[in-house]
Amino acid sequence: MEEAIDAASSNTEILSISDPDMLANVLTDGVKKTISDPRVKVTYEPGFVLAEHPAMPDIPPEQLAAMIKGTVKVEILEGNIGYLKIQHIIGEEMAQKVGPVLLEYIWDKILPTSAMILDFRSTLSGELSGIPYIVSYFTDPEPLIHIDSVYDRTADLTIELWSMPTLLGKRYGTSKSLIILTSKDTLGISEDVAYCLKNLKRATIVGEKTAGGTVKMDKIKVGDTDFYVTVPVAKSINPITGKSWEITGVAPDVDVPSEDALDAAIAIIKLRAQIPALAQAAA
Questions:
Q1: 90/102 Cα distance (integer angstroms)
Q2: Smaller CB count within 10 Å for the chain: N or C?
């Protein structure tokens, strides 16, 4: 990136661009080509303030319920199939606060189903600490499983994520079918969850290859200017594959257009339900 910036500083075509937003787009294209990382972006944002994440305020239970209902869709489909569409994966702190709401509004409804579909097709954000929460609901309490390792460059620290021995409410278990729907817009934390459950052989991924984002992005101010570089500052390495889903994305087990993924998932679950009867008839 330093080499790219040095080259750009003497490029008369770039220096002659007077519109700052256009310049930001040109710089973005140049940096992406130089380092082969589509996640890096240069933006022009006058007045932007890099803010620390504030502590979570106390929120009344009824407001928490409204917030959860706004980001999660729950349905029981024909054939006793649970459908859970998530737009944002909450972290540990939020999970502790909204636990009773999660149980009443979501989990108690979906737990008795015979199969589940997790819809991550429009899941664009999430918290790192939410990964072991979701994965653990679809694994056994023992033995504990090493889910993921995340190297955080800003802290020069590798964080190991493990399955959790105790959870709020009952686990969905390991025997019932679990299908995750993905699209080219599935981004970040949801990609990690899908990749973990896929390689644990616990979930079938149906849909499109995911965006290939990252678990953590930072926005860095460029000198004394109003330009910022958004860059990944952490890397996920799966302990099973020894690889990362970042940049390349999570490849589906069943590749179908995202708009057809739900119908395909339902068909797969229905077929799986028929297998014991078909096997018995064949015998």
A1: 11
A2: C
Q: Which residues pair with 16 in a beta bridge?
A: none
Q: Give the pair of three-digit tokens for residue 186.
A: 């599935």
Q: How many CA atoms lie within 13 A of 57 on its CB side?
A: 4
The two structure tokens encoding residue 17? 């661009």
Q: Where are the alpha helices (DSSP H) in the chain?
A: 2-9, 12-15, 20-35, 61-71, 92-102, 108-110, 130-136, 189-199, 261-282
- Cα–Cα dist 127/11, whole Å: 40
Q: Where are the domains of the chain?
A: 1-36, 61-139+167-216+248-278
Q: What's the CA gap between 150 and 130, in Å, rounded?
A: 13
Looking up tokens 């999970």, which residue turns up?
Answer: 95
DSSP-derived letter for residue 219 is: E
Written in H, E and C, the secondary structure of 66-109 is HHHHHHEEEEEECCCEEEEEECEECCHHHHHHHHHHHHHHHHHH
The dihedral sign for the CA sequence 32, 244, 189, 202: positive
Q: Counting every residue, how long is the chain? A: 283
pLDDT, tens digit, 9 for 90 and up, residues 79-131: 999 999 999 898 887 777 777 778 888 888 999 999 999 999 999 989 998 99
Burial class (CB in 10 A: 0-12, 13-18, 19+), 119: buried
Angstrom distances, CA of residue 174 to CA of 119, 135, 171, 203? 19, 11, 9, 10
Q: Which tens digit of pLDDT belongs to each residue from 211-255?
A: 999 999 888 888 888 888 888 999 999 999 999 999 999 999 999
CA distance 43 to 46: 10
Query: Homologous superfamily of 61-139+167-216+248-278 in CATH?
Result: 2-enoyl-CoA Hydratase; Chain A, domain 1 (3.90.226.10)
